[in-house]
Amino acid sequence: YFYVDYYSNSCKQSCFKKDGTDTKNCGGIAPKWMQTFKTSEECCINKLFWLDQGTCVADSTKNIVSEEDKGSKDWYVDWEMYKCVRDCVKGTGSNCGGLAGNWDDKFITSIACCNTMLPWLDNSHCVG
Q1: Quick one: CA torsion of 81, 83, 85, 91, rounded to 10 degrees?
Q2: 3-class SS at 28?
Q3: Do 118 and 126 contact (CB within 8 A), yes or no?
Q4: 76-104 pLDDT, tens per residue?
Q5: Contact 84, 114 (CB under 8 A)
Q6: d(CA 128, CA 56)
């Protein structure tokens, strides 16, 4: 079972900790009052919904996810720049604007993002 650890922004497995020999993301036995979930996916969706779910699950199960693999690669608006950018870690690819928040509307193409969210801008000025 998994429970949320807000300090690390991940879900910890409820299990006995072993000094240095544990390969799981063991956080110790969950307190009785803490809600637990059968999978890290359920824990991430219910308790850490604002995080990229793939990254949350990977962090919660100690699977290593490269910076290039984080994010959906979909397009969303960076409202500070008023440009559509990609949901990926800045510096890891073309037009990566950082990881989108769960609240951000995402689009498969930059054109869909621009036409829907920033229709007053010419597409050539819309993509960041």
Answers
A1: -40
A2: strand
A3: yes
A4: 999 999 999 999 988 888 899 998 888 89
A5: yes
A6: 26
